[in-house]
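Example for tutorial group B:
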């Protein structure tokens, strides 16, 4: 199977069982603390997330795969260090990975079925699946203190996907954790969202604030977002294991529309139709023009108050979208200007 997976562009494959009962107390506590924020679906599915055989009856094994995504031309730190540039999480610079990986996983599952007929379903961040837990139990890596999967040979810059199967495949051995006393990811988080090792309060996480949150970003957190307009990579950039990260080989993951070097001002000037056209096929398309504009307004409020930045904000001070108007007003006030 590993050879077939490699032929389809996957960097690795491993197999785990389906008993995740030991992970349920942690999931219950995380939900009880409200750390999922407005992601109601997290609570709605409850413990099914930790019970693969309830999600897909008959499941005996989970085949986990990973695919590297880090783009060759993406100098993340340079973008973060320039407050006039827009920072987009590196995984979202190119095309949306969901469809690509799901199609490849389907092909892999069908290839397996040609040799050993089986019932299966494939998932790529598309159902209540504890993908990091499953991947860590399969031996693809271990859960880092930032809660992402880490691999000694590849760091954390990769996507995960799963095949739920009723084949009694041999199990792979889990890998032991290798974070030790390191707390680089905790110290690097701009908003302190990693409240303890292996515990993230999504309500403070910049990825949640810029992607999942539908309403206004809490004012106290806005200055901490900096120039990050979609997602955040700081905890991964700080992780020593990413010295061993591998570049992605998929052309579809290469940066599109200059998202790895664009300025905040030029992106804020996009019309809604331009946003839709340029972000079609991108993970960013999912948040819509309103949240995209909201995020850019916050970043412009954190940028140096150059004439171009102030002109961009003033141009949308009377934006028809109330959410955008409110964040533009905040940004103008940050620069010592009041609407009207």
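The residue assignment follows.
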């Amino acid at each position: 199977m590993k050879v077939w997976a490699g032929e389809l562009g996957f960097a690795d494959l491993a197999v785990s069982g389906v008993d995740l009962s030991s992970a349920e107390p942690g999931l219950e506590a995380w939900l009880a603390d409200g750390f999922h924020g407005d992601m109601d679906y997290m609570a709605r599915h409850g413990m099914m997330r930790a019970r693969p055989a309830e999600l897909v009856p008959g499941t005996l094994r989970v085949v986990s795969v990973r695919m590297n995504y880090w783009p060759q031309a993406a100098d993340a730190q340079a973008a973060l260090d320039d407050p006039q540039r827009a920072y987009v999480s590196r995984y979202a610079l190119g095309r949306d990975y969901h469809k690509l990986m799901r199609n490849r996983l389907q092909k892999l599952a069908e290839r397996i079925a040609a040799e050993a007929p089986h019932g299966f379903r494939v998932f790529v961040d598309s159902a209540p699946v504890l993908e990091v837990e499953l991947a860590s139990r399969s031996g693809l890596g271990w859960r880092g203190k930032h809660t992402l999967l880490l691999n000694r040979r590849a760091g954390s810059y990769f996507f995960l996907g799963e095949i739920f199967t009723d084949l009694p495949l041999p199990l792979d051995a889990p890998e032991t954790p290798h974070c030790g006393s390191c707390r680089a990811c905790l110290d690097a988080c701009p908003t302190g969202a990693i409240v303890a090792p292996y515990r993230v309060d999504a309500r403070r996480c910049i990825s949640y604030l810029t992607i999942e949150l539908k309403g206004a970003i809490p004012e106290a957190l806005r200055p901490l977002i900096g120039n990050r307009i979609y997602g955040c990579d700081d905890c991964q950039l700080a992780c020593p294991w990413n010295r061993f990260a591998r570049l992605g080989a998929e052309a579809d993951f290469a940066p599109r529309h200059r998202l790895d070097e664009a300025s905040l001002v030029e992106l804020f000037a996009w019309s809604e139709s331009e946003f839709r056209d340029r972000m079609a096929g991108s993970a960013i398309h999912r948040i819509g023009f309103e949240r995209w504009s909201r995020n850019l307004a916050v970043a412009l409020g954190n940028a140096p108050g150059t004439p171009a930045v102030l002109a961009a904000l003033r141009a949308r001070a009377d934006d028809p979208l109330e959410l955008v108007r409110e964040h533009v007003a905040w940004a103008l006030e940050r620069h010592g200007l009041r609407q009207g």
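The beta strands are 12-16, 61-68, 87-88, 120-123, 142-143, 149-150, 158-165, 194-196, 199-200, 228-230. Compare this with the pattern of hydrophobic and polar residues in the output above.
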